[in-house]
Amino acid sequence: MTGSDKAAILLLYLGPDATSKVFEHMDDVDIKKISQSMARLGHVPRDVIQGVVTEFTDITNPETGFFSQGEEFVKKILEKALGVQKAESLLQELRTSSIGDMVDILATMDSKTIANFFSQEHPQTIAVILAKLKPKQTSEIVGLLPQELQAEVVIRIAEVDQVSPEILAEIDEVIRKELTALGGVQRFKVGGVEKVVDMFSYLDRSKEKKILDRLDALNPPLAEVIRKHLFTFEDIFKLDDRAIQSIMREVSNDTLTLAMKTSPDDVKDKIFRNISSRAAEMIKEDLEVMGPVRLSDVEKAQSEIIKVVRKMEEDGKVVIAGRGGDDVLV
């Protein structure tokens, strides 16, 4: 049993009055976890109760355990502790949170294991689930799927903007049964083009290119939209000189040198114009004597610089026009 399961059994045993007083001193996250456990416990055997609240064994019914009173019990204590409006909002989350539980389970699993399992599922099912995972894990799993599935799943992640609670519950049930270890009119945002673009930021350039090339054949408009939103190492040098100078001050010479290994001459020239002459000479010398390097190492260095640019954009230190809309700089 989880800690929230044990807490739920104890509070159910103590009753609504004591439970509401306890909830007044807890944050929403913990209340939600315990309430979920309460709502799904069902029958709790006497020996389980004894294991959780051994100090109360002298007053525990020796014949049976008890049945959780389910949602009505949860609703009553939430209203008493939080008020009617906040309680109803939290209950709505509880009714439709099973897909979130599965996300927590998948987050602890190896990406290769998940990809092997999903390789037998329909692309739409895969997309709905992957769209709920963190971008890094999503990219790892997509990269490990059979090649013929990768672009299909990416298309569906971009298209699956909203999904009904009923479908989420159905997918959750099917996946749970198949893994064996492993809510209504409201709809939930789980995907979209932004999710795909975020996912691509964790893919290496070769896999990114293969998927985009396949998308060109399967869904050209989507491929064009994704390319418009993707920010590449070369795009940095379409910025003005002041922005480039700010970025270069945040990047080490070693990382910059490696990232420039495959850059065209016009990109190199723009970099050299926006760093000190001493740094430029050092990088030129290093590039001249640098032997063969892995493409993956170059792409990793470029990705590190891209992350620096994204962080600077988030902090308002640089402005990148044209990303996510028709931005115009004036």
From TrEMBL:
Domain Flagellar motor switch protein FliG N-terminal residue range list:
1-98
Cellular component, GO annotation: bacterial-type flagellum basal body; plasma membrane
Q: Which UniProt keywords apply?
A: Bacterial flagellum, Cell membrane, Cell projection, Chemotaxis, Cilium, Flagellar rotation, Flagellum, Membrane
Q: Which InterPro entries match?
A: Flg_Motor_Flig (IPR000090), Flg_Motor_Flig_C (IPR023087), FliG_a-hlx (IPR011002), FliG_M (IPR032779), FliG_N (IPR028263)
Q: Which GO terms describe its molecular function?
A: cytoskeletal motor activity
- Lineage, top-rank taxon, reads Bacteria
Protein's UniProt keywords contain Membrane:
yes
Q: Which family does it belong to?
A: Belongs to the FliG family.
Q: What does this protein do?
A: FliG is one of three proteins (FliG, FliN, FliM) that forms the rotor-mounted switch complex (C ring), located at the base of the basal body. This complex interacts with the CheY and CheZ chemotaxis proteins, in addition to contacting components of the motor that determine the direction of flagellar rotation.
**Protein name per its UniProtKB record:** Flagellar motor switch protein FliG
